[in-house]
Amino acid sequence: MAKELGTRVLIGNKPPEDYLVIAAKILRQYNEVYLLARGRNISKAVEVLERLKKELYGLKYEIETGTETLEGPDGNPKYVSFIKIHVYRERGGVFVPRIHR
């Protein structure tokens, strides 16, 4: 499934549903999760966030964006955008799934 490192989920090339399931599981267990993505996968991380917000009450989030410099295959610098989304539940907050009708 998704690559998971503690409370971090690295968003890659799999369908958003895969990341949504693992992120929801981590949220229930630890009350927080970090969604990390680079380049083309940034939109997928935002989609996972929006779906989490839609499915679960009581969530807060903080977003950090930026650019990383990586070494390309030819040795030249390559600039890649990234996003880091911290999704969490405040202490005492309600955390229940929404019921769909």
Describe the oligomeric state of these chains in a short phrase.
single chain
Gap between N and C termini: 29 Å
**CATH homologous superfamily classification:** Alba-like domain
Low-confidence stretches: none
| Strand ordering within the main sheet | 1-2-3-5-4
| CATH architectural type | 2-Layer Sandwich
Average pLDDT figure: 87
Shape: elongated
Largest sheet: 5 strands, mixed
Return the string of H and E elements.
Answer: EEHEHEE
Tally of extended strands? 5
Task: Provide a descriptive summary of the structure in words.
- With 101 residues, the protein is α+β, with helices and mostly antiparallel strands.
- It has one domain (3-67, 76-89): Translation Initiation Factor IF3 (2-Layer Sandwich).
- 29% of the residues lie in helices and 39% in strands.
- The chain has a five-stranded mixed beta sheet.
- A hairpin with a 5-residue loop joins strand 4 (59-71) and strand 5.
- Helix 1 (16-30) packs across helix 2 (42-55).
- 17% of the residues are buried.
Helix and strand arrangement:
Layout: E1 3-5, E2 8-10, H1 16-30, E3 32-38, H2 42-55, E4 59-71, E5 77-89
Helix pairs in contact: 1-2
In short:
This protein has 101 residues and is of the alpha+beta class. The chain has 2 helices and 5 strands; from the N terminus they run E-E-H-E-H-E-E.
